[in-house]
Write a sequence for this structure.
């Protein structure tokens, strides 16, 4: 694409028309992963449940001062949706609100981890 834009005279520098090694490696990695990537539902659930991904998201929020408190109606709807269908059933609009709310995201993470620990203890 860079070369096509360059031929059209839309790019000014070599870096704009010829991608650097990092970008080429990234494209190669994406090509190799084609069809192997997890669904957005799986990734969302991992962000909530896996401590390392959860901590990364929380630290980025703190560093960027990006936390926005979820509207109380959204928080109530979120609780209902989770109770009825679990984490994967959360609609996109509530996922966005949840990911932006530091405290709500933290509480959900703790709830999910606690539920899994209780389920694991029941199976022992």
């Amino acid at each position: 694409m860079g070369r096509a834009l360059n031929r059209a005279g839309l790019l000014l520098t070599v870096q704009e028309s010829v991608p650097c090694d990092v970008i080429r490696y990234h494209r190669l990695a994406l090509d190799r992963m084609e069809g192997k990537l997890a669904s957005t539902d799986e990734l969302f659930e991992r962000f909530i449940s896996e401590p390392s991904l959860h901590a990364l998201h929380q630290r980025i929020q703190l560093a960027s001062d990006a936390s926005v408190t979820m509207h109380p109606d959204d928080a109530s709807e979120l609780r209902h949706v989770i109770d009825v269908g679990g984490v994967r059933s959360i609609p996109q609009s509530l996922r966005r609100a949840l990911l932006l709310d530091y405290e709500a995201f933290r509480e959900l993470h703790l709830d999910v981890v606690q539920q899994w620990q209780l389920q694991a203890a029941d199976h022992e």
Remarks:
- The CA atoms of residues 28 and 34 lie 10 Å apart.
- The chain has a mean pLDDT of 83.
- The two ends are 56 Å apart (CA to CA).
- The chain has two domains: 2-33, 40-123.
